[in-house]
Design a protein that fits this description.
Low-confidence stretches: none
Number of strands: 4
Helix content: 40-55%
Distance between the termini: 63 Å
Strand order of the largest sheet: 2-1-3-4
Order of helices and strands: HHEHEHEEH
Radius of gyration: 19 Å
Number of helices: 5
Mean pLDDT: 88
Strand content: 15-25%
Structural class: alpha+beta
Length: 135
């Protein structure tokens, strides 16, 4: 096998890998990662007595897009609460929690609402998504 040809193939592969990783990182920071079967996840968390943070957003919402990177960062840093993310455009779950604006963050303990925050203040969102449910 020709060494030059082999080197070129490796460079092409590395370039494709870099593009794929960059695309994933961009997608990860600009997309909400909805929980499949959010209602079921909430019921299971309540049964287990898990502390849960329920996040409502809507596809196409400019306020939701504005804070998605902050929300994803807060989710990844929270290691103690179960996180459930729901798109109000594809679900009626928001009606059960009387959500009238997005983004909305609701903290639940044993299935009962403790507190909520609606808005785009990044410090409020970071504080809300912190691990401690005593906030």
């Amino acid at each position: 096998m020709n060494l030059k040809h082999f080197s070129r193939d490796i460079l092409i592969l590395l370039a494709a890998l870099a593009v794929a990783i960059g695309g994933y990182m961009s997608w990860d920071n600009h997309t909400y990662h909805d929980t499949s079967q959010a209602k079921v996840s909430l019921q299971q968390a309540a049964k287990a007595g898990d502390d849960t943070i329920l996040i409502f957003h809507k596809t196409g919402c400019s306020d939701c897009r504005k804070v998605v990177a902050d929300v994803n960062r807060g989710i990844s840093q929270n290691t103690t609460s179960k996180i459930v993310v729901d798109d109000t455009k594809n679900s009626d779950l928001y009606k059960d929690y009387q959500v009238s604006e997005v983004p909305t963050f609701i903290r639940l303990h044993n299935g009962q609402e403790i507190n909520r925050y609606s808005g785009t203040d990044t410090q409020e969102i970071a504080s809300f998504l912190e691990a401690s449910e005593q906030k």
